[in-house]
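Input record (one chain):
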Amino acid sequence: MSFENFAGNEHLKTQLKRFIISGQILNSYVFSGENGIGKKTLSQEFIKELFCEAPQKSGACRTCSACRQVDSASHPDIYYLKKQKDKKSYGIDDIREQIIKQVYIKPFIASRKIFVIPEGDDLTQEAQNGLLKVLEEPPQYVIFIILVSKKSMLLDTVLSRSCVLNLRPAPLKDVSQFLRRNFPDINGEALEFYTKFSQGIIGKAIKIITDEKYHALFFDTAKHLSSVIKSRDALIDFHRFLLENKDETDSIIDFMLIFLRDCILSCEGLKNMVICPQNLKSVLCTEVYKKKYASCMETVISCKSKLSYNVNFSFWGLDLLTEIQNIFDND
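The corresponding structure, as predicted from the sequence alone:
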């Protein structure tokens, strides 16, 4: 089993290989891990192994009709749960219409029928209870694949009827090898930056390489935060930046935490662990400032949790930036 498009998580590759070789395929698998860690990629590799029409010793052939249909999400025996228009979650009606009505119809061309739930975190409790009825006594040919960022979002009864596969960040050497293989024009300091930026999450590296807006957002966030730390006059500009990029708030918070982490590591003399030295050219590195950076990280994390409540975003951003400036105002 090659999983050539997937780096890291060797323990899960081995586990999935055992399922394939033994033929003991379970009815439900939960792929759990943070966004960008490779849940979709690993699950697709697994599905290819199950459906491949001309398997090789190394794994799926990747060229047969079934493998190509898996890659293009067009296989007639693979169903992807979709949300209703303008809905942020899957409801019980989605389960009834897209799964329960289809689950007892035998596969068209393959020996198995697979239902993929790509955003399992968004299953309402009612939807999960509806799914549970099928999970308790599924047809032998049916496999459910549920992708979640946080398995705690799933009911214990759903988890107990599934094989839970917890994805871990890949070793940085594996990330570097993946990037060299897939982005051969990237090398030197750029390769080192993208590798460290990933923090073992290959999807993060791919995004900052391929998404110009995301790339610019990272450096703009560091520039604004550095300015706010040094001057109260910068608060208005950073606040405007937050409002203009409201839809990217999660990324901005992550970038703020990366910047502050780098500041702390630089203060500790661990510059080889810094993700982006370029952002630290004007950063003060003293024991006092190290404590301030740590306090600032705690503030950002605390304010992030408040976003889950229905707060006024403009006031939230202003409070966050004011708290940060208060930390750095006086020794």
